[in-house]
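Bit of a strange request maybe. I'm writing a small parser for structure token strings and I need a real example to test against, not something I typed by hand. Could someone generate the tokens for this chain?
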Amino acid sequence: MDRQGYAVAIVGASGEVGRSMIETLERYPIPVSSLRLLASKRSAGKVCSFRNETYVIEELTEQSFDGIDLAFFSAGGSVSLKYAPIAVSKGAVVIDNTSAFRMDPNIPLVVPEVNAHVLSKETRLIANPNCSTIQLVVALKPLKDCYGIESVNVSTYQAISGAGAKALFEYDEELSDPTYQPQILPTRSDEVYYQIAHNVIPQIDVFMESGYTKEEIKMINETQKILDDNDLKVNATCVRVPVRYGHSLSTTVKLKSPVKDRLEIIDLFKRSNDIVLKDDISCQEYPMPVYLQHQDEVFVGRIRKDLFEERVIHFWVVADNILKGAALNSVQIAYYMHQNRLLGD
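Reply from user aminoacidic:
Good idea to test on real output. This should exercise your parser:
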């Protein structure tokens, strides 16, 4: 590491998450001595600003990581599978925002508020979880620590931006032109497409043989891995809704010990430094994505104790999927490693 800071690369710098990484890194106290912005040949030549300097996006090549200390990846799984090992071999610590390495048992899957302890000086490649998983486990952590968790049932209300810039563009086209023919959602791996404007699509990613979608299986497996509990029973239903930014989760948790009333859970969340509590039924206060987009925190509300089961609670979780669900979590990992002297030589 240069004494003045880290040589940083961002792969996928022209994409929405990549741009958010640049903005988030700019406001975090991580010393950066140099910045290399990387993307496909199509995006090379575009200009971005960072800390009052102008940077030109370069085409990604195998030589792009020479001299790099820290590399953020957000350009698709195939790009990460090819180039992340190259970056590591040249001495960089890689934080990958794709699904390429998440379930590799030798690669940590990290949400800093939950399991930063798995990081060490020897860690060279870190996986960033699925956006919905991140906000879920942040909300589950205080419950796990206080009561233990037996099972989780979660239904997601996922924003269009989670499917990329083209999906957002298509949403706008559908709103302005009723005759527009959808070409993006629910997944580009098939020839069946549905409009998202004025609609709710109960499918994200492709279906598996079990009837679950790949997105749902990701949430199940990633939650178990992050919470280090392969016996945790997790079920997920992932749904795309006509919201631009911000994923919402309707969450039911069966705890290992009983809860007296909802105020007990409200107090627990209120005492958590990693959650913003928005739960005041006297004035109809609860988290909503349209009011919380572009904010860093994970918000929790609509907390209820089950009417029939003494160990079951229900609550609502909202977070910005581009920030906490992607760019911010990646930068927070880097910041934790910087603070704890896990980066550099």
